[in-house]
Design a protein that fits this description.
The complex is a heterotrimer of chains A (221), B (316) and C (482). With 221 residues, chain A is mainly α. Chain A has one domain. Chain A contains 8 helices and no strands. Chain B is mainly alpha-helical and 316 residues long. Chain B has one domain. Chain B contains 11 helices and no strands. In chain B, helix 3 packs antiparallel against helix 4, helix 3 packs parallel to helix 9 and helix 7 runs antiparallel to helix 9. Chain B starts with a helix and ends with a helix. Chain C has a domain of 194 residues. Helices cover 79% and strands 1% of the residues of chain C. Chain C has a two-stranded antiparallel sheet with strand order 1-2. The longest helix of chain C is centred in the middle third of the chain and has 36 residues. Classes of the chains: A mainly alpha (221), B mainly alpha (316), C mainly alpha (482). Chains in contact: A-B, A-C.
Chain lengths: 221, 316, 482
Amino acid sequence: MNLQLLAQINSFLAALVLLTAFAMLSQRKINSLVTLFAWQGLFLSINTAVVGFVAAKHHLYISSLLTLSIKVILLPYILHVLIVRLKIRKEMETIMNIPTTMLIGIALVIFSYHLTAPVREMSTLITRSTLAVALATVMIGLLMMITRKHAVTQIIGFLAMENGLFFAATSATYGMPLVVELGVALDVLIAAFIFGIFFFHISTTFDSLSVEQMESLREDN
Amino acid sequence: MTKPLHLILIEILQVVIVIAAAPAFLGWVDMLKCWLQGRTSAGIMQPYRNIAKLFVKDVVLADNASWIFRITPYLVFGTAVVVGSVIPIISTNLFLAPSADIIVVIAIFATARFFMALAGMDIGTAFGGMGASREMMIASLTEPAILMAIFTVSLAGRSTSLLHIVQSFSNGALVLRPSIVFAGIAFVLVVIAEAGRVPVDNPSTHLELTMVHEAMILEYSGRHLALIEWGSMIRFFLFVTLGIACFLPWGIASTDDAGSIAASVFFMVIKAAVIGVVVVLIETGLAKMRLFRLTEFLGAAFLLSTLGVIAFFILE
Amino acid sequence: MILLVLIITPFVAAMILAFIGDRKVAPVINIFSSFLTFLAGIALAVEVFRHGQFVAGGKFFFVDAFNVYLSVLTAFVSMTTAVFSRRYMQREKDHGKVGHTRMRFYHAMFQMFIFAMLLCLLTNNIGVLWIAMELATLSTVLLVSLYRTPNAIEAAWKYFILCGVGIAQALFGTVLLYFAAEKVIGEGGEALLWTNLIEVSGSLEPTVLSLAFVFLVVGYGTKVGLVPLHNWLPDAHSEGPTPISAVLSGLLLNIALYALVRCKVLVDGSTHTHYAGNIMMGFGIISILVASFSILRQKDIKRMFSYSSIEHMGIATFAFGLGGSIATFGALLHMLMHSITKSSIFFTVGHVCQMNQTQEISRIKGLFKGDPFTGWSLMLGAMAIAGMPPFGIFTSEFLILTATIKDVPLLTPLILIGLAVAFAGLLRKVQYMVSGDIPSYFKQLKTARTPVILHMALVLALAFYMPAFLYKWFQAAVELLK
């Protein structure tokens, strides 16, 4: 395969990652959100493998497999089990209406593009242009956490941010050293364990997983 | 370019094809839909029969109908024919194509829509005004989206001229462009809205709560209605061919000999047939949306087309 | 070798404690392993004192004057906290606030937290630094929600989400840092090693590092509790068990600041401007002002002291940002003093809350009469933390103010206002709590006095006499951070 085609595949996958980020931002149904998250992980995993092939970095294959197993299979599965167990079936409430969120999302993409300009200019890697997408994914994950009032959506936003960070590492530097990648994956796993416990705590204490009820700790109380 | 007679012939051929094939395309779509829903279809020729029937009927005009009401059917039909003469459908060597670029095409469509809305309000019935206001609401949402999609294509083709876009795409090597994919999906969504298909509008009902396009033309009859219906069919067909020209331009003839023109027509028929299948699949897969959910549907189209522009700058 | 003992002990202890569960020996093991960690820390410090900085474990670990002093501090405070928590948690258990499973969890996670902090301090790899920082957050999240009250869960959730978001920004900054380093050092793990980075910091690309620092300051700044990224801090401190508040406030904030300062040194080396310092000074000033005014409005005793932590972290951040030998020296001293004083205050506050069975300031009264030891230790602790002479914080604040007057005189009034407001706010509220009559619900309890006395004595002693070795450490650290 020639390099140019691989570069195109790479940027195409980046576009798909961005698209899934936006789709998650616009999604109301929680099950679809989990599915979209799994898709994002899948695109990311394929992308990592492609980059690993292009750059002949074998440790990226490990990262790719790790992403596949954790973010595509394990985490969506855990989330799904939690959703079934905790009987979360409702549509999500959003703080802002969705078109406004989308516009903010677009603004964030442009912002990321400008922010990463110095890096793009200095880099010689074929993946350099996808760094902006990676940062945008991080920002959109953040936006999702802010605009949703549900614990599960907040967690998915958090995990989407993690996806973006992983993507950033792949596109800026062909991946962090393996020890760091493994450590980050471990942290994500522990985080998954913790939010799983948390969902149970929140739903037993508050009767639902909406974060809206958690507003007693304020400065004016 | 040295044989203007050739070019004029091709041009005339294209216009004739557009006018003649548009009802057939709609008939194809309706037929597929019937099949998918397990009904017996009226056949691909049914739109022709409808138009013929309307032409022999008398025109009934409301007392207070103004010149706008009377002129609009001709305008709708006329603009559709004009657009049909500038989009490269069967050949890129079109006589009239250099006279208008892609933005003009959109503007001409918008003009026709504007007169439709005026005509809808002209008589002063409740349904006409309601349809017009809904139509304009949809228009205000589709037009930014379609322009963004077209900007993406123009950026990638380095020109707003349709001829250049078609040439640069069909001659260049196959490049995987995320921007074009985004713009293409956005374009499909917009075309569904523009052509008044499900889930934006349902062309086959006159249900007062949901109809948009039908509400506007409720007062028309006879040949006026025939022209408007025909114009709408051409418009739908033209949007499809515009999509073909922008996103699937392979096969459009760039030489003048009869063989390549014939091949080009053949490809056009195949592509239009396939697009018809896609449209039907979308239509049967989705339910008609509430009017206020449309902002989200078209917002998604706008988002996709904007992402297309952004992806062009970021990734290409 | 010593280093390995220092790192491994808490980890092994965490495993053991998770295994044996809530037995009588669990707190003892907790204390014992903390003590062992402390001894190892001392031994390591002696080694650094004798031979200077070194790398170990295939460049994986790196010890210099800066992190060894924080390691000893971490080991010390966690040891005293373990002593304090034995009786405290026993009483919470008796009150039925926590069960067996949660006690097992508490002990294991406490040691895990110490392990994460020590790893954070001693690792040479800034990627691992990030991972350890995240681990420190994760290990404490469920400790904050230990009581499972709605408020505790809310606080822990906020802590989890906000710190998660913050720390994610820091990872992005680390990626950018790696990107810049890779150009100079070459690919692979070598490019993330602090010892390599500091050598080539002059040739790292300044624009990328400036960008990276923005993300790093947001990320680690969230964990330091810098305003406006501080929202999680008062909640997490006030709703968690008191020993956890003590270590969060006394240690975790220090560790985060440590990470930030490490990054700042790199960025300074690359940009040759005062860019990073200015950002830190800005965050510092805002934190001082906002936190000190917030103290005035607090109704919950633990929240009040956690705002005081934000204020002091603001002072230290400001001083590190200011740079120069006096300010840096002051900042190092301030981190030490604040950590010791604040953890001692939280011990006392824990006692106070248990005696009054409330955290509300308005319901706490008459401590002087009810339990003179606790009353006085609260009063003295508040005086110390407010910066009254002769306590150690006065010394460090004095140093920092001197440097401010010399370098940026215009900012001095702002800091002074912050300090004065915090002083007034703290002492007024503490005054109210210690004086007056004993309320009816007051119940005198046996308190763990040793940690409190030890801490207060240290704070007092260090103000009058700074041992030569400490002075030398600080000087060496100041040199490193120049």
